[in-house]
Structure formats: C-alpha cells, structure tokens
Hints:
The protein is α+β, with helices and mostly antiparallel strands.
Amino acid sequence: xxxxxxxxxxxxxxxxxxxxxxxxxxxxxxxxxxxxxxxxxxxxxxxxxxxxxxxxxxxxxxxxxxxxxxxxxxxxxxxxxxxxxxxxxxxxxxxxxxxxxxxxxxxxxxxxxxxxxxxxxxxxxxxxxxxxxxxxxxxxxxx
Length: 143
C-alpha cells in the first residue's frame, strides 16, 4: 500500500525576501525568522517606563549583561602575531625583554626588531655578582 501525502501549499516569506516561509515560523523564511527572534530579544532587554511627570515622557533602560559576554569571547580569540611582520607565531613565538611582544623566528634577534633593552649592562651586573674578585695571597718569603 502506498500513501500519497498531499503537498502543502507553499507560502512566500511575509517580509518579501523571495524565499518560502512556513506557518510555524509566522510565514517567515529561516533567515527572516532568526532576525525576528533577535529583534524580539532586543525588545525584551529594552524596558520602556512611562512616567507621570510632564517633563519626561519615557525612560529607556539598557541591559549591559550581554556586553560582558562579548568582551570575554574577544579576549579568547586574540591571535599571537609577530610585532614586526604580523605573522602568526602560534606556540613557537619568542618574547623579548624590551616590549614584551611576540616575535617570529626571523625577528627574534635584538638587531632585527630594533630592541631598546640594554643587554650589556644587565650582563655586566650578573657577571659582577657571580664572579667575585680573586686576590692571590702574596708570600714575601718564597722557598
């Protein structure tokens, strides 16, 4: 036995975009329905309060809770790039003492990225701490 299902009559989107809509989506296509849902959410967030005073007719309050989620997601998406050539460095990036930025394998040397850190004075201080001055005992009467 075969059953023939009668095809539903297709309805164009009520916003006039040219796609077919469905009755379950308020006669909207999928793209227009998503935009419709976003508009509804924004309307719920913005609360309009009418006041009785004659000077101010309405107040609008914006909910800022959605903005903090956007900030957190943008922090996670920051890519590490070379400060000179803007190449993606990934896990192999080299950091420098001068700016604290990341550099690729070509620009990791201080001569390549015009480093402002004074390695020479830091090296001299470290050597002075590690290698103390050695004085030889002088014997007046040697055998």
